[in-house]
Structure formats: structure tokens, C-alpha cells
Amino acid sequence: MPGLVLRRWVLATFIVGALTLCNPVVTGAYAGSVDGVWQIPIKLVDDSGEQVTLGAWAGQPAIITMEYTESSLVCSVTLAYLKELQAMLDARGQTINFLIISLDPKSDTPQAWRRYRQTFRLPYPNWHFLTASVEQTPALAQHLGVSYRVFDGIIIHRLRILRVDQTGKIVNVLRTHFDDLSSFLDQTATAY
User: Fold this and answer.
1) Could you tell me the residue ranges of all domains in the chain?
2) What is the pLDDT of residues 48-61, one digit of tens each?
């Protein structure tokens, strides 16, 4: 059995690498045809069970990413970056909303997100865990420029954390393990 786990991990690592090298990176603010992420009309359910759209955060800056509660590799790195960004913002005396959107709408119910929040000690009131419908998740990922694939029941995705201004324009993207977190928080950056 350990050999099977190792083979699956090696294959997953290869696929993540292939996604990084072969998939086109979405350029511009997003792949969709709307003006800013706050205009994306997809309905989401938050971790309290309330229905919202991204427009609920219009007029406020945000950090947005997609992950899922059962992930272990990329999402754990993403979560570590999000926690580090939160600490940096706390040190600066700034509050920015963090919108963490599910890549696994079948499993990421409001209850699953609440367990995730508790398990990883995420008491931050500015962190919002959101889930779209199964049908709408691929479109939302495309709007946000998030590449992912489902392989053998495992969701494999690239690191992509967005810095969005109050108008919904993407002003910066964290997409590699070498990106500078301080620069990422600089709203004047335009590298998307």
C-alpha cells in the first residue's frame, strides 16, 4: 500500500508540474467577460450557510484563492502563505478580506469549512470560506485564472492567490513559491 501512495504522490507532483509548464496563465484581470471580480455573477454559499456573490465585498480590497478542505500538498502551502499574509497585515494594522473558494463543491459544505476553520485554527473574522455549485465551480476558476484538474479523485491545482483592489481589479498575483509576500501586498503592483 505505501508503494501505491508513493506512486500517486509522484504522479500528482508530475501533473502539478505539467499544469505549471503547459497550461496557459490567464492574463488580464480574469478570463471572463465581466469588469472585475466583484461583477462575477456566480452564487456562492459561505461557511455560515448564507448565499452570497463576490459582489458582497465590492468596495473593499481582498485576497482571493481557491482550495479545498481535503487537500494536503498545494493547499497546505497556500494556507501557510495566507496565514503569513494575515500576520503581515496585522503587523501593518491593515484588515483585508480573505476569500477562500472551494475547488471541491461536492465535499466543501458549510459544515466542512467550519471544521476546516477549527482544525487549522483560523478564527479570523475577515476570512470567508465559500463554495459555488458543482456546475459553476469550473467557470469561477476560469474567471479567477485558477488551473486545476481532477485525477483519480484528487484535485490537482496550481498555486494562485489574487490581490484584488476595491473595484475588483486584480492588482497582483502570487503564483510561485519564490514570489515576495511584501510585494504581493503592495496594491500598486500590476503583475497579474
Assistant:
1) 2-185
2) 999 999 999 999 99
- Judge: domain 2-185, CATH 3.40.30.10: yes
C-alpha span between 57 and 101 (Å, rounded): 14
CB count within 10 Å of CB 10 equals: 10
Q: What is the pLDDT of residues 11-24, one digit of tens each?
A: 444 444 444 434 43
DSSP secondary structure string for all residues of 110-174:
HHHHHHHHHHTT---TTEEEEEE-TTTHHHHHHHHT--EEEETTEEEE---EEEE-TTS-EEEEE
Torsion angle, alpha carbons of 22, 150, 178, 120, to 10: 170
Q: Record the pTM.
A: 0.79
Rounded Cα gap, residues 142 and 26, in angstroms: 8
